[in-house]
Design brief:
This protein is of the alpha/beta class. Helix content is 39%, strand content 16%. The protein has an eight-stranded parallel beta barrel. It has a two-stranded antiparallel sheet with strand order 5-7. The protein is globular. The N and C termini lie close together (7 Å). The chain binds fe (iii) ion (2 copies) and zinc ion. One fe (iii) ion (FE) binds at residues 67, 107, 142.
């Protein structure tokens, strides 16, 4: 079965997202752990978390994904921004411990003018501080488009973080199709080569999730503007190959396309139709 879902709002709580995912034809979903552009967070409701766990079990959900806020930047040169990143990730991981089969995805960060190497060192510092062995939730690094001074614009930078962090082999990767395409990886014409390169540099065993997005821009544009499935420069044929590729087809796919809920339901139905049993 194709495991597919989309980004949902957490404003009505955990169980509400599970039910919403079901009505959209999804068996997974993604949500922000807190306000993505600020960082404020609602009071935690453990009973609601447990209700979602039971609901997901009944409805045979695939793993779900929690997304850290965009304001979390462990690579910042500003120590107060780094402290916010550490506190936020720690608190988010404490909450996520109440949810079964969830992973936490974050954008590695932006080094601004310090250079990628310094950025990587700071990201590793944060992970060593907050991602301690007692935490069961897997943490994923997202592949980035490389806009501005984003760390994670290529597989080598993600590997560098995973190699240096103490949590090393507990870290995974979430591959964002729009981001890697914008970063210059030709998943339209050379998908096998890109996945081979991922395997050689990071290892395919680290690949845990896919953000399935089309792109408004061309290969290597370093832009990061998501498009609806089949309406961007990746296109429907390449999307069909992506969801059916032997190394990807078992992974959960999350849509982060510019859609309202009914648009997501349509894309989920479209992709389920394109998946080969
Ligand atoms: Fe993201
Ligand atoms: Fe993404
Ligand atoms: Zn993006």
């Amino acid at each position: 079965m194709l495991h597919i879902g989309c980004h949902l709002s957490c404003s009505n709580g955990y169980l509400a997202m599970g039910k919403q995912a079901c009505t959209l034809g999804a068996d997974t979903f993604q949500f922000f752990t807190r306000n993505p552009r600020g960082g404020s967070v609602k009071p935690f409701d453990a009973a609601d978390a447990e209700a979602l766990n039971l609901f997901r079990k009944e409805h045979h959900f695939a793993p779900i994904l929690a997304h850290a806020p965009y304001t979390l930047n462990a690579a910042s040169g500003d120590s107060s921004v780094r402290e916010f990143a550490m506190r936020t990730m720690r608190e988010d991981l404490e909450r996520l411990d109440y949810l079964d089969d969830v992973m936490l995805n974050f954008h590695p960060g932006s080094h601004v003018k310090q250079g990628a190497e310094a950025g990587i060192r700071l990201i590793v510092q944060m992970l060593d501080e907050v991602y301690t062995p007692d935490i069961r939730t897997p943490v994923l690094l997202e592949t980035m488009a490389g806009k501005g001074s984003e760390v994670g614009r290529n597989f080598e930078e993600l590997r560098a973080i995973m190699e240096k962090a103490k949590a090393g082999d507990r870290l995974g990767v979430c591959l964002d199709t729009c981001h890697v395409f914008d970063a210059g990886y030709d998943i339209v014409n050379r998908l096998d080569d890109v996945l081979e390169e991922f395997d050689r540099i990071i290892g395919l065993d680290r690949l845990r999730m896919v953000h399935l997005n089309d792109s408004k821009n061309v290969l290597g544009s370093r832009k990061d503007r998501h498009e609806k499935i089949g309406q961007g420069s990746i296109g429907l044929e390449a999307m069909t190959r992506l969801i059916n590729h032997p190394v990807l087809r078992g992974l959960p796919f999350e849509l982060e396309t510019p859609n309202e809920l009914n648009g997501y339901a349509q894309e989920i139905a479209l992709l389920r139709g394109l998946w080969k049993e």
